[in-house]
Amino acid sequence: MVLTPSDIEYIKSFGISVDDIHKQYTLLTQDRPVLYVDRPCTLNDGIIKYDEEELEDAVKSVSDNISIRKIVRVVPASGAATRMFKQLLSLYHSGSLITLAQLRDDAEHSRQPGTFAFQFFSNLSKFPFYELLLSQFPWLESIEQDSDLLPVLGYLLTDEGIQYGELPKGLIPFHNYPDEIRTAFEEHIRQSIEIGNEFLESVNIHFTVPEKYRTQIEQHISEYISNTFPDRNIHITYSVQKLSTNTIAVDLNNQLLRNGDGQLVLRPGGHGALLENLNESDADIFYIKNIDNIVPSTKNKDSKSYTKYLISLLILTQQRIHTCLRNLESGKLAIEELLDLLNEFHASYGFHLPEKYRSFSKKELEDLLYNALDRPLRICGMVKNTGEPGGGPFWARDCEGRISPQIVEMAQFDESQRNIIDSATHFNPVDLVCGVKNHRNEHYDLTRFTDPTTAFISTKSVNGKEIKAMEWPGLWNGAMALWNTLFVEVPLSTFNPVKTVNDLLRIEHTV
Q1: Rg of the chain taking only CA atoms, in angstroms
Q2: Strands (E), 350-451
């Protein structure tokens, strides 16, 4: 890899060191280590299942001291709705005449993207943005079989109209109520307020957003709160992905990717880069939910309840760990107590136990247990696997050599591990509650607990040219690999993502 003086100047303008670029290049061009996955996490082997009475007891037991903690809902919302409208965008960019009759024929012969578009146009009146389209195209109220639908797609998806194919997903109208239409941003705010009414004294939400749309998003949210909750004390904060987390890309010959002017291309480093944003938070606890996993408030009872349950379980688990750490510092624990605690926590968190640890001195046992427990803690909801694409809970080896509970994406598996994938019972809906302060109330440096070897290398096409792009270890994958982790089964009703626009037609997203 050769960097010119102008390359180095450009790299430093992003706040990136030349040494970091060399490390990225090594990751991009060397063979990736295969992640060793031992087995899936299943009930009673990595996944805990509580009955409702146990969960309600957990909520009651923390009710007296929860107000002293700053709890922040974190919603990664930088992503555009491009994938949500992918099939419609493909049809639009074909530039050909599009009629309902043609789409019907595609559907009858299972041809994409026509089949997807036929479902979309056949149910157009059910979408929350229908009235917007109708105001421009009154004939949509009764679509003729030979009407050209291409202008409708142009208005919907591009800057010829409301450009939903480019906007952040959080700004897309999701749900149609009798008296209002709510975007994903608005639904997250509403749910946070409802949880606050029942459980928390204050409402704190942090959205990570794209720089280009930050002003528009802030205005949208400010207007919603002032019009709907003028008397509520709601704290909304925003951040954007740091330029210093951008990464290089190479072509298939491992040459650095450059633009038409010969300038080095630095690309956003994926949602794992948001760890830097979380590291600057002053929260005691944050809970992470994806922007698109939100249902109408008429159907969010389970989601609200299990958010409370997971927060309560984290506080109780954290209290036990912090008590143990204080006892370790005071030297109160006898050798037999240390051995019992090591075995108990090893079963939960999978940290490494040396072969002859039972013969260790008291000081060696204290150090071993302290190092194992003095980490950020996360409790992650897991739903039963129904075939959704994405990651899941597995016992996997991290960079410290531990076989510990990890959220593993399908892209991290080797084909030889197919039998392990197929035997998985649960799926990751991205429902995480995270404790990020230690027993002295100090914020952990979260960058110390990542596994850099789990960076993602993906093949993409740019201007018809294949490239290899690097993304940082995923936020809930390698970026949290060295955290202590507990997986808890939550109902499937808490997982209702909107990956495509037609998902809004599901019964879970109808009011």
Answers
A1: 25
A2: 377-384, 392-397, 403-408, 426-427, 431-435
Residue 389's pLDDT is 64
pLDDT of residue 305: 95
What sign has the CA pseudo-torsion 323, 326, 328, 332? negative
How far apart CA 338 and CA 344 sit, in angstroms, is: 10
Instruction: Please provide residue 184's backbone torsions phi and psi, each rounded to the nearest 5 degrees.
Output: -65, -40
How much helix, strand and coil, in percent to the nearest 5, is found in the chain?
45, 20, 35
Q: List, in sequence order, every residue forming a beta bridge with 462; answer none if it has no partner.
A: 465
**Other CB atoms within 10 A of residue 292 CB:** 23
Task: Give CA–CA dist 209/50, Å, rounded.
Answer: 35
| 392-397 and 403-408 beta bridge pairing | antiparallel
Distances (CA, A) of 300 to 429, 491, 502: 15, 12, 20
User: Are β-strands 71-76 and 285-289 bridged in parallel, bridged antiparallel, or unpaired?
Assistant: parallel
- What is the reported pLDDT for 391? 83
Of 297, 349, 361, the C-alpha closest to 496 is 297
CA distance linking residue 178 with residue 31, whole number of Å: 55
- State the alpha helices, DSSP H only, in 235-300: 275-279
Q: How is residue 168 written in tokens? A: 């952040």
Rounded-to-integer distance, Cα 35 and Cα 399, Å: 10
Give how far the C-alpha of residue 14 lies from the chain's centroid of Cα atoms, to the nearest Å: 25
Query: Of 293, 216, 246, 287, whose CA–CA distance to 494 is shortest?
Result: 293
Both tokens of residue 214?
Answer: 């930050």
Question: If you search the block for the tokens 């990717």, which residue do you land on?
Answer: 257
pTM value is 0.92
The type of residue at 397 is R
Rounded to 10 degrees, the C-alpha dihedral 75/76/80/86 comes to -90
447 to 16, 272, 331, 359, 361: CA distances (angstroms)? 16, 11, 29, 33, 31
Q: What is the pLDDT of residue 62?
A: 93
Distance CA 419, CA 433 (A): 30
Report the candidate in 313, 351, 286, 297 with the shortest Cα–Cα distance to residue 489: 313
204-249 pLDDT, tens digit per residue, is 999 999 999 999 999 999 999 999 999 888 999 999 999 999 999 9
Backbone angles phi, psi at 326, to 5 degrees: -65, -40
Residue-wise DSSP of 433-479: EEE-B-TTSPBP-GGGG--GGG-EEEEEEETTEEEEEEEPSPTTTGG
Residue type, 509: H
Question: Which residue carries 């197919």 as its tokens?
Answer: 418
Report pLDDT digits (tens) over 213-222.
999 999 999 9
Q: Is the bond into 268 cis (omega within 30 degrees of 0)?
A: no
Instruction: Round to the nearest angstrom and report the end-to-end CA distance of the chain.
Output: 56
In the predicted model, residues of the chain with pLDDT beneath 70 are 389, 463
